[in-house]
């Protein structure tokens, strides 16, 4: 896992810590659902587990909740080891994509359900339910049945029902997955507001990178049962630690090459076709090593001639796609493979090339980033396929 250097978790001690947690449902070791995850989640943090289907997000969440026992490792809630502690003794609540509301109960009774089971005094129940319905902006729907509500409203009832118990942490498994895009986007902002208001630690599972970027304080990007990077949204996007993270979060250009010289802050990357670009160096690098550079499509500028910068490559436009706010260009570079470039359609682009035109691609050194992992053996400077966009 990549070290999260810019954003250490809060010093007060994590609300939730996972130490080398693994889960094997049987079968061989490489197929284990979770293969050794370390996480440290701060009190009041909005923390997301993000990754493709089957990467182990839900299994990780279910182990934190107590619905699954890990095969190995420790789960600490506020410093207490939870392995062996049943789900209902963990002071944690979970919200699912299927709201699982009681159809025959009113909104208020759905929210009050857990408090009644705990025999909380009636006056306190009324007060807490009212307050919670107010927080999720459903105070005027208290007497309705779930079927009389929209999907987004039902999800807010499910949220209120979980939060009214005042858990120390709330686990959410793709809670907005059943909603259409517009409603999902407005619920993302709503969820973030509610989380800020109640101050409870949220752990949010999603495969939707835009959703994770919108809401999270920090994101853990998972792949094949392992965490590849833990960082705030901006860092995950702008400084992806691995090729997987760079490719999973948005579109990314990966440029493979060999470092020919290493200075204090920058180095020179030889792309193997006579072209060289300057790259930023963070951490120690050795001259001669094979590395991968990533640069986002919107950070690249297209010009007709070579721009006055040390980070530029020449190419031929293969595809032009108009996307409304921007235009996407696929460019075959002189190194032999393709890069993607987004140019804004706001009148600031210096050229509007057509298919077949020769262009120069340039970017600020600071807008590129060397991946922390070594590239796969095939991705060397001599291999044209090492220059790809994902
Ligand atoms: P999705 O987004 O599709 O829900 P996920 O990232 O949440 O995916 P998990 O549900 O944690 O992934 O599943 C991880 C792996 O573990 C998958 O290969 C899945 O088939 C397997 N798995 C999950 N639960 C079980 C189980 N109860 N028995 C056997 N295998 C399981």
Show the helix and strand layout.
Elements: E1 16-23, E2 34-41, E3 46-50, H1 57-65, E4 72-77, E5 80-81, E6 92-95, H2 107-117, H3 122-135, H4 151-163, E7 169-173, H5 181-198, E8 201-206, H6 209-215, E9 218-223, E10 226-231, H7 233-238, H8 243-248, E11 253-262, E12 266-270, E13 276-280, E14 290-295, E15 301-303, E16 312-322, E17 326-333, E18 338-344, E19 358-362, E20 368-370, E21 387-389
Parallel strand pairs: 3-8, 3-9, 6-7, 7-8
Antiparallel strand pairs: 1-2, 1-4, 4-5, 9-10, 11-12, 11-14, 11-21, 12-13, 14-20, 15-19, 16-17, 16-19, 17-18
Helix pairs in contact: 2-3, 2-4, 3-4
The structure holds adenosine-5'-triphosphate.
């Amino acid at each position: 896992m990549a070290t999260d250097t810019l954003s250490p978790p809060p010093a007060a001690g994590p609300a939730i810590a996972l130490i080398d947690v693994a889960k094997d449902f049987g079968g061989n070791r490489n197929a284990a659902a979770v293969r050794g995850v370390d996480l440290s989640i701060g009190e009041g943090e909005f923390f997301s587990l993000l990754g493709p289907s089957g990467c182990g997000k839900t299994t990780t969440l279910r182990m934190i909740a107590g619905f699954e026992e890990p095969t190995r490792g420790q789960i600490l809630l506020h410093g207490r080891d939870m392995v062996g502690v049943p789900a209902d003794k963990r002071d944690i609540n979970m919200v699912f994509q299927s709201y699982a509301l009681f159809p025959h109960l009113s909104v208020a009774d759905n929210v009050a359900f857990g408090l009644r089971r705990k025999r909380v005094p009636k006056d306190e129940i009324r007060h807490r339910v009212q307050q919670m319905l107010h927080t999720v902006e459903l105070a005027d729907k208290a007497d309705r049945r779930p079927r009389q509500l929209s999907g987004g409203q039902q999800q807010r009832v499910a949220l209120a029902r979980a939060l009214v118990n005042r858990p120390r942490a709330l686990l959410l498994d793709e809670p907005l997955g059943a909603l259409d895009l517009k409603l999902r986007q407005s619920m993302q902002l709503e969820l973030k507001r509610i989380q800020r208001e109640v101050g409870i630690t949220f752990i949010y599972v999603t495969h939707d990178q835009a959703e994770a970027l919108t809401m999270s304080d920090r994101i853990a990007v998972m792949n094949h049962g392992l965490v590849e990077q833990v960082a705030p949204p901006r860092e995950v996007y702008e400084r992806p630690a691995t090729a997987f993270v760079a490719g999973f979060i948005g579109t990314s250009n990966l440029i493979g090459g060999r470092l020919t010289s290493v200075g204090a802050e920058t180095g020179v990357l030889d792309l193997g076709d006579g072209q060289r670009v300057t790259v930023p160096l963070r951490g120690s690098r050795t001259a001669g090593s094979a590395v991968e550079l990533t640069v986002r499509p919107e950070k690249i500028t297209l010009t007709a001639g070579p721009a006055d910068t040390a980070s530029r490559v020449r190419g031929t436009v293969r595809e032009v796609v108009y996307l409304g706010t921007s235009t996407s260009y696929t460019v075959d570079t002189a190194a032999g493979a393709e890069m993607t470039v987004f140019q804004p359609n706001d009148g600031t682009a210096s050229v509007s090339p057509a298919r077949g035109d020769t262009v120069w691609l340039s970017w600020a050194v600071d807008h590129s980033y060397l991946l922390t992992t070594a590239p796969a053996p095939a991705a060397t400077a001599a291999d044209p396929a090492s220059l790809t966009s994902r």
